[in-house]
Design goal:
The chain has twelve helices and 15 strands. It is α/β, with parallel strands linked by helices and 382 residues long. Helix 3 crosses helix 7, helix 4 runs parallel beside helix 5 and helix 9 packs parallel to helix 12. The longest helix has 29 residues. 47% of the residues are buried.
Length: 382
Amino acid sequence: MHHKHSLLTVIAAMIIVAAMMVSCHSEPELKSRRTVLVYMIATNSLGTGGFNADDIEEMLQAARNGGLNGGRLLVYHTSYTQSPTLYEIKAESTGKAVLTKLKGYSQDVPSVAAERMAEVIADTKSIAPADDYGLVMWSHGSGWLQDGMEGLPSIRSFGQDINKTMNVTTLAEVLGNDSFSFIYFDCCYMGAVEVAYELRHAARYIVSSPSELPTPGMDYSVNVPCFFARTPDLAKAAWNTYDFYNRQSNASMRTCTISVVDTRYMDDLADACREIMVKSTWPAVPDYNVQKYMSGTCYHYDLRDYMQSICTDDRALAAFDKALADAIVFEAATERLWDRIEIKKHCGLSAYMIRTQSNLTAKNYNTLSWYADVVSHMVEKQ
């Protein structure tokens, strides 16, 4: 009896240990260290140009080269030739990488609709739970411009799904608070202070371009490993994108502005800008020449050049520079944009310049949090 009891005890102990070993070994499969979602809307000129296929191939290349580092890479993709689908890019032990379909979606909900984006993010977190999440936004972009499909009637900001776009205020509502460790905007004009401020609670870091980004966007084969480093190396990812374009031999392609913003300092930056604006001489605006990041009607000027041009208090500018230095982790810019605009100043964020009363409602500027919390105090000062 004594031996039998001991044997049963040993067997029971072995079962418990085996169960513990199974749970320990299965845990990493259930929950990875990081999941990155690439939200790819290619029902536009980028899709017809094949840039979506190029970038997915670059992601597969990164996976083949071990760039996922134990994490999971999901891609929500919609194009003229493929209905909306959530895929996963997986590395196989054979040294190959595969694109696996996880879920299909109906085409009657636009990919720039809050409803669809929220569904895809929820699916991502359910299918590929992780300790933290990264988000890459892939499409066209126009920055803070509030003329997208939701929030206000006939009011684009992120994305272009055929003829529909999404407001940045809607994007902020969908992403919520502390949803992502980083957001990388692989699109144009999203490096605006208005965008970073609107999304300051959604992600710790935001990588974006104050100006246009050439249609090839970033090189995923070199940037995916940055996203899956133990601590995401966003400065390296931003540098990779800048360096790729700065090395172009064709002057018209040697164009790039990019920055990494630490959103924890956006409130400090807002406070500093508000102080400068309230003390400015607006609406008696001097005839100043602030650094532009676009031709024609300009919605994106260099933030620091703008603040310096209206500042009447050296201490206020010093406070702004301190907040800016805290907020900008990395910034880089080529010497020119499209060989047309010389970049003399680049602080890492753009801003819309308020020159006249009509600027306040241009593209529904007055619907932004940045307007409510910062610009309105300048406008309403006695």
